[in-house]
């Protein structure tokens, strides 16, 4: 089923998504953006991207691509705890030597409180935590907030561990052109007619059919200011009779309905699912 | 009512929020972050921050601060179309001279398609569009994607106008410690008990009382992974009887309910509301 030459993931090499991709056997190809991961997927390849973070919430670029790319479905989800370290260029001998700290803006926010006791002020946001590690490897007296994995990849010295201000878990999804009907949860995306109670009436169908929602979120349609599409996850899979009935019912009261498939949760620790 | 020394806004000077703040008379004080605007507000001052963008959706830092700061309420909303320009350091004589383009990552995304026909590739994300203008003013052969206002403030040359890929409107709010009960719309934030249909039952009250929702959004609680709070806006004000009844009803079925007040829409073009 899986093309071993086609596991596309949100890079660069050393990213958190790269770590998650390591549970799959086969050639892994980093892409610069989530959109490029979606655009790379062929009939026989898969993609791996983050979809939600317990601190920052859903990842908009992933949602917007799922909504836009009708032929791409969600097959698995994988949760991973994100642990940040402060890693430095080998020129740094003490914390006082650090002139600049690179990281993704989210990671900077997530470590800010912990790092504030060391009086660092010069944080520079870059594309990703692994890009930050790359920069820190090239510039004297610089540091990165990144994963241990990225720090090792770029030969940085780890001088502080567990610098997250609070627990931080990211949920990743495996996407492909294959619609799966088995699994623990199902994802749909939809728009509703612009009239009172339209969203309420959709949720009513789930409630009346005894289906538990696990996620509801809204995203701007962009093309029309202040109009939103909704992203919903719920328990059960497409083969369940009550799910079938519900999807039929909501098809009549939504203006656009995209069924993104059912999916199973994979455990991060276990390796080589596809071997 | 308004302390003329206390109009705090999301800076730096030259930001889109700064432009909106100009409709108010009195001393305006830029703050580096949205959180700092919230933290600066005293009994007699106001704050101005963005809350939603028609392309990017709600502004998370604003929502999270509204949720966290119980004593801060929403008094007005103001919509403004965001028009981006490409502005250059005076050293730049033609598009080919541009070596680097600074901007906020959102603005880079919003102008990417339009700018792609000029073959620019070296975009560097910085804190804000006005910071980008500041950088471009200091560095030869650099440019910024920013507002005309910021370009003029930093003496840049505007070489391309209307570079947004699509229409882009930002909604700003005026916040203070005063709960307002008059206005066109009302904002509430709440959490629901962790049981099936909990959100549905809240929306049911609005539907049954004939109140139109204009916005629903969810944000992670952070303290507990995968638990969310909801942010709701609806038509009507707190003095309306049906709003009063609805708020009483949902108080019983939410686990935490924060009423952020009713508010009126101000027109951007009109100046000096408070004079």
UniProtKB/TrEMBL annotation, chains A, B:
Q: Which residues form the ACT domain?
A: 187-264
Top-level taxon in the UniProt lineage: Archaea
Record Pfam families: PDT (PF00800)
Give GO MF terms, alphabetically: prephenate dehydratase activity
Question: InterPro entries this protein is in?
Answer: ACT-like_dom_sf, ACT_dom, Preph_deHydtase
- GO cellular component terms attached to this protein's record: cytoplasm
Ranges for domain Prephenate dehydratase: 6-177
* One of the GO BP terms on file: L-phenylalanine biosynthetic process
Which biological pathway? Amino-acid biosynthesis
Keyword Magnesium recorded: no
Q: Which UniProt keywords apply?
A: Amino-acid biosynthesis, Aromatic amino acid biosynthesis, Lyase, Phenylalanine biosynthesis
Q: What is this protein called?
A: Prephenate dehydratase
Organism, scientific name:
Sulfurisphaera ohwakuensis
